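seq as requested:
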Amino acid sequence: MSDPLSASDRGRTAAGYMGREYRLLMKKIIAHFQSKIQIWPAAIYFVLYMYGFRLLEQVNRSLRLVTVIHTPIDDRIPFVPAFSLFYLSWFPFMILVYLYFAFINKNVEEYNRLIFALGAGMTVFLIISALWPNGLQIRSGYILEPGFFTDLIRLIWRTDTPTNVFPSIHVYNSVIAGLAVRKCRRLSSNKWLQIIALVWVILICASTLLIRQHSLIDASAGLLMALGVYYLVYIRDVIVRGTECSVHERSHASDC
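struct tokens:
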């Protein structure tokens, strides 16, 4: 007859071996990502994100059980078509920040923090949109007169439908990108650039409300989520601590 204790010991030995091999594999993967800036994971994620976003938008637009997000304060916020310029400036702002961290700054740690922070919030947004279909009705009742800014508003409203708005990714990504610029070692001493980035982020966030793209609720949710992720990624150093733990020697693996 087999000894139950010996069988248990063999099980623990096998589990310990698998655990060590897993940590070694993670060590190699993390070391690879720490060695140089990786462009392809961000590119692949962006493609998958856009596919998921468009799919959820089509699905949620066909549903009748969509939660309408609204507060009485939304009705008191002025409608300012000129802020469509700042809303659209989100695209060059995000592109410039990404290009700087990817190709000019060339700091692997700072690049990884930015990409992880952006990806974390965008993933949470997709999960919320899938589990809790939501939308806005604050655009109704506006008659857009012909004009340059109102033409931009029509373009925005036509391409960016008022579904899947919580939390605001416009606000979230802008704040994360602005904070990444603030924390960047090479840019932290450039006061004028820091002021420009701060004002740009504020104008983008304000534009989401002033052109009726977002309610105060989902804009605030985007801001709060950005501050929460910033605290975890930039203050608590969850990425750095996780990678430091994973690259311990086998004798210290139990401390992780």
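The chain has a mean pLDDT of 84.
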